[in-house]
Specification:
Blueprint (H helix, E strand, L loop, with lengths): L3 E4 L5 E4 L5 H13 L3 E5 L5 H12 L3 E4 L5 E4 L13 E2 L4 H12 L4 E5 L10 H9 L3 E4 L6 E4 L8 E3 L5 H11 L5 E6 L6 H8 L4 E6 L2 E7 L8 E3 L4 H13 L4 E8 L6 H9 L2 E10 L2 E9 L7 E2 L11 H9 L3 E5 L12 H11 L3 E4 L4 E5 L8 E2 L5 H11 L6 E3 L12 H8 L2 E4 L1
Parallel strand pairs: 2-15, 3-14, 6-7, 10-11, 18-19, 22-23
Antiparallel strand pairs: 1-23, 1-24, 3-5, 4-5, 7-9, 8-9, 11-13, 12-13, 15-17, 16-17, 19-21, 20-21
Helix pairs in contact: 1-2, 1-6, 2-3, 3-4, 3-5, 4-5, 7-9, 7-11, 9-10, 9-11
The structure holds shikimate-3-phosphate.
The site of shikimate-3-phosphate has 11 residues, from helix 5.
Length: about 450
């Protein structure tokens, strides 16, 4: 494991172009693999998680390759055309790859054995096993976790499934399983979760509709569509952008511009919260590309105050709680995160790991099973070595904290950042971050 130390930074300034969105990158490879013909992807995120998806589909008969101009091409196997891999599929650290591929395999007459790293093997997969077994797949798992074996079927049954938890991954897995069925697969969600699967399915030619009924989203997918290869441009990842935005919010006199960030409203809860805290954020050049809203973001330092974040906002900022907790540490007053029990089953138990990391660096907290409070203070002591627990967002969050804390903060494993944002360290240093390998 490689340590990285982050120290107080004098100036954080510049223009940042961050990599493509992780959720959209996974889905572009997945749907490209299920389509007939070739899909060309510009702006694909080249991270370990996304490469795990590409490698899994390459083993199942699709072909994803990088072109000389930096774009990627996927040659699809056609819907129903995936073939049985002749080896175990290792999903590394990636929950999105695992859960969405479980859905896709469910609707194919193949058997797949899946495993993952020490973090992924601790995460619950029963949330996907439930709907796909109702639809006819057979799954043998390690008590609802990896490693598992899925035997899919080409006679998958369409179901109506009301999500027991707000999860885009479970929604997507159920819809993707329903693709090869002959009827309508219906997913009902109480809180809107990210809708990239729905947007991208439409882009590939599927008939999919979202209606509001009694305040809930009812998503209806017509089975057996003809999916045809398309051209896709992937916008920059708002979850990756959040680390740059947060740095500018806590380093005095900073000013950063971030280009072409995906502003899909199911992803922008972090920005809404920062604005409520008093952040100086401007959105410029707002436009729609490939069915997704995009904007450039300009952030300048401003003193912030703590806020109470409603549980209804959780899905739209689910991955941003670690970095928001860092920002909240430097704000005046308390910030309360409500309804965040799902954080306990991410790449690490993020609620506990964040609270432990904050406490080790001199920040006071309070916590319950599904909530926590960060007690902010303009001066954060810092000085600790933070255990990242194979969690890329924990690693990046505490590196950001070190930019403004009194003493440097060290993380114990910089390599974990490659899951989602391999260029993070270089990009941050380019903007002025004081990082040192130890
Ligand atoms: C993702 C959905 C979210 C998020 C994950 C990516 C996706 O998980 O935390 O990083 O691409 O669908 P849940 O939907 O399980 O909350």
């Amino acid at each position: 494991m490689q340590n990285l130390k982050s120290s107080k930074t004098k100036s954080f300034k510049g223009i940042a172009k961050i990599p493509g969105d992780k959720s959209m990158s996974h889905r572009a490879i997945m749907l490209g693999s299920l389509a007939v013909g070739q899909t060309n992807i510009t702006g694909l995120l080249e991270s370990e998680d996304v490469m795990a998806t590409a490698s899994a589909f390459n083993k199942m008969g699709a072909k994803t390759i990088k072109n000389d101009d930096g774009s990627w091409s996927v040659t699809g196997a056609g819907l129903g055309g995936l073939r049985q891999p002749n080896d175990v599929i290792n999903m590394g650290n990636s929950g999105t790859s695992t859960r969405l591929i479980m859905g896709i395999v469910a609707g194919h007459n193949i058997k797949v054995i899946m495993t993952g790293d020490d973090s992924l093997r601790l995460r619950p997969m029963d949330r996907v096993i439930n709907p796909i077994t109702q639809m006819g797949a057979i799954v043998d798992s390690n008590d609802g976790k990896l490693p598992l074996v899925i035997r899919g079927t080409n006679e998958i049954m369409p179901i109506t499934y009301e999500l027991p938890i707000a999860s885009a991954q479970v929604k997507s897995a159920t819809l993707l399983a329903g693709l090869t069925s002959r009827g309508d697969t219906v997913v009902i969600e109480s809180e809107p979760t990210r809708n990239h699967t729905e947007n991208m399915l439409r882009h590939f030619g599927a008939e999919i509709e979202t209606k509001k009924q009694d305040g809930k989203n009812v998503i209806v997918l017509k089975g057996s569509p003809v999916l045809k290869g398309v051209n896709i441009t992937i916008a920059c990842d708002p979850s990756s952008a959040s680390f740059i935005v947060a740095s500018a919010c806590i380093v005095k006199n900073s000013k950063v511009e971030i280009k072409d960030v995906c502003m899909n409203p199911t992803r922008t809860g972090f920005f809404t919260t920062l604005i409520e805290m008093g952040a100086n954020i401007e959105f410029k050049n707002e436009r729609t590309e490939g069915g997704e809203k995009i904007a450039d973001i300009i952030v300048k330092y401003a003193p912030l105050k703590g806020v109470d974040i409603p549980a209804s906002r959780v899905p739209s900022m689910i991955d941003e709680y670690p970095i928001l907790s860092i920002v909240a540490s430097f704000a005046s007053g308390k910030t309360k995160m409500n309804g965040v029990g799902e954080l306990r089953v991410k790449e690490s138990d993020r609620l506990q790991v964040v609270v432990d990391g904050l406490n080790a660096n001199g920040v006071k907290t309070q916590q319950g099973q599904d909530w926590y409070v960060v007690c902010g203070n303009e001066n954060v002591r810092g000085g600790a070595v933070v255990k990242t627990n194979l969690d890329h967002r924990i690693a990046m969050s505490f590196l950001v904290m070190g930019l403004a804390s009194d003493s440097p903060i060290t993380i114990d494993d910089v390599n974990t950042i490659k899951s989602s944002f391999p260029s993070f360290v270089d990009l941050m240093q380019h903007l002025g971050a004081e990082f040192l390998y130890e």
